[in-house]
Design brief:
Elements lengths: L11 H9 L37 H18 L4 H4 L2 H34 L11 H4 L1
Helix pairs in contact: 1-4, 2-4
Length: 135
Amino acid sequence: MGVMDKPPRPSFLAALNRGLKGRCPACGDGKLFWRYLKVEPQCPVCGHDLAQYPADDGPAYFTILIVGHLVIAPLLLFPFIWQAPVALVLAVTLLPLAGATLILLPRIKGAFIGALYALGVKERDAAMHTADAAD
């Protein structure tokens, strides 16, 4: 492969998996985040522009959906939730809820960016969906 050759575009699942692991969806080698949720402007390995993917509120919504189903829904099945003192229930439910949210959020954001990459959705495409563009 020459210096200017780009690697072949990965499949949707490969890009999703790379993002889930916190890696560049284009090459799979570079880090996606430089802080907890801050996306690298460019991949340090392949130079791909990572800041162009609009992962605004989508990852948070998916995280809430997943954590709600994994943590909260099963807890509602146990009678102690309804019979125990409120302080105990809050301690037992809030700690796993916060932990699961903090663990899942960067992974889901990475997978979301990987999906946007695979689908070819970029920040500049937002102009096509505004009311001004319809005029």
